[in-house]
Amino acid sequence: MTGERPSGAAADTGRHCDDGVCITCSDTAVEVRVLRLLGGEMAVVDTGRGEEEVSVALVSAGLGDTILVHAREAIAVVGDDR
């Protein structure tokens, strides 16, 4: 699947995944910063390599917060910069 995105990964950001895997879709949870909150409990985050859209349904994240994301799902707020 080289050069293609996994189903639904980074769908609305127009970003391509590195080596066929989005940063936030990997097997490892990663820290990212919330750039924008969207409707439907979604957010655009800065991964350090670009922007990706992730779910924030399980956490109370705000603009500027650092969140821990695994499989495009925020699982914790690790830094509250509000």
Looking at this protein, list some descriptive labels:
single chain, 82 residues, mainly beta, SH3 type barrels, 5-stranded antiparallel sheet, 38% strand, disordered N terminus
Task: Give a structural overview.
- The protein is mainly β.
- It has a domain at about 25-80: SH3 type barrels (Roll).
- The chain has no helices and five strands.
- The protein has strands at about 30-40, 40-45, 50-55, 65-70, 75-80.
- A five-stranded antiparallel sheet has the order 3-2-1-4-5, with no helix packed on it.
- Strand 2 and strand 3 form a beta hairpin.
What can be said about this structure in brief?
This protein is mainly β.
The first-level CATH class of the domain at 23-79 is given as Mainly Beta
Report the principal-axis shape: globular
> What's the CATH architecture name of the domain at 23-79?
Roll
SS content category: mainly beta
**β-sheet strand percentage:** 35-45%
Order of helices and strands: EEEEE
Number of helices, counting only DSSP H or I runs of 4 residues or more:
0
The percentage helix is under 10%
Strand order of the largest sheet: 3-2-1-4-5
Q: What oligomeric assembly is this protein in?
A: single chain
Q: Overall mean pLDDT score?
A: 80
How many β strands by DSSP?
5
Using only CA atoms, what is the Rg?
12 Å
Low-confidence stretches: 1-16
